[in-house]
Amino acid sequence: MMDAARVRFARALARKSLQEFGATGPPLPVEDVLHFYGLTLAREPQEPAWSGSLHGDRVLVNANHPETRQRFTAAHELGHVRLGHVTLEPACLDLEPGAGPPKRLTPAQVADALFAERVWLQEVEANEFAAELLAPRAWVKAFYRDLRDPDRMAALFGLSRQAMWLACLRAGCIKYRYRARW
Ligand SMILES: [Zn+2]
Questions:
Q1: How many whole angstroms from 98 Cα to the centroid of ligand 1?
Q2: Beta partners for 40?
Q3: What is the DSSP letter of 174?
Q4: Radius of gyration of the chain (CA)
Q5: Counting beta carbons within 10 angstroms of the beta carbon of residue 1, is it exposed (0 to 12), middle (13 to 18) or buried (19 or more)?
Q6: pLDDT for 104-128, tens place per residue?
Q7: I need a surface site. Which of 47, 60, 111, 168 has the fewest CB within 10 A?
Q8: 74 CA to middle of ligand 1, Å?
Q9: What is the mean predicted confidence (pLDDT) over 41-48?
Q10: What are the backbone dihedrals phi and psi of residue 152, each rounded to the nearest 5 degrees, phi first?
Q11: At what angle do helices 4-21 and 107-134 cross, to 10 degrees?
């Protein structure tokens, strides 16, 4: 389960980063933002399932992906840096004193499970950071007020149509309505 407080923190940190950088509106010059935080961006063709990675201060994204996807990946990797994910400490085991790990699980299995959980949480957090960095709620609301068209906004924000629709939904500009068809 994703903790709402962690989501809020990731999004708040994205807005703070925009402020520090001095971003004024879409499309966010994501490569410049990376530079601002001491990172360089490189593009390399990779297989389709591979999005990007972080090597020290070098962010690598898949050149075979659409530009919108590369922008999101770059913002996601910046999220890992800003959220402090790159200085991974060993997972903390906060168990009852003397209780030990649950029976039938070896300590290695517990550590693996905690590591997997942590990696997953970090991926979610980095995605939240990236979504808010590229489409902060205030920009989305302002542009929706004028345009009322997420598809046109997608081009302006440098986002995929899907990501832009999601951002509009999250900002409360549009409502998800499920209508049963008979
Ligand atoms: Zn990641």
A1: 35
A2: 58
A3: S
A4: 19
A5: exposed
A6: 677 788 788 888 888 889 999 999 9
A7: 47
A8: 10
A9: 95
A10: -70, -35
A11: 50
The residue assigned the tokens 């997420």 is: 150
- Asked whether the beta carbons of 132 and 11 are under 8 A apart, the reply is yes
> How many C-beta neighbours within 10 Å does residue 138 have?
12
152 alpha carbon to ligand 1 midpoint, in Å?
Answer: 28
Within 10 A of 169 (CB to CB), how many other CB atoms are there?
14
What digits encode the pLDDT tens for the residues 48-66?
Answer: 999 999 988 999 999 999 9
CA–CA separation, 75 vs 81, rounded Å?
A: 10
Task: Please give the model's pTM, rounded to 2 decimal places.
Answer: 0.84
Half-sphere CA count of 165, side-chain side, radius 13 A = 6
Query: Over 70: is that where the pLDDT of 96 sits?
Result: no
Over residues 64-80, the pLDDT tens digits come to: 999 999 999 999 999 99
* Element spanning 88, H or E: none
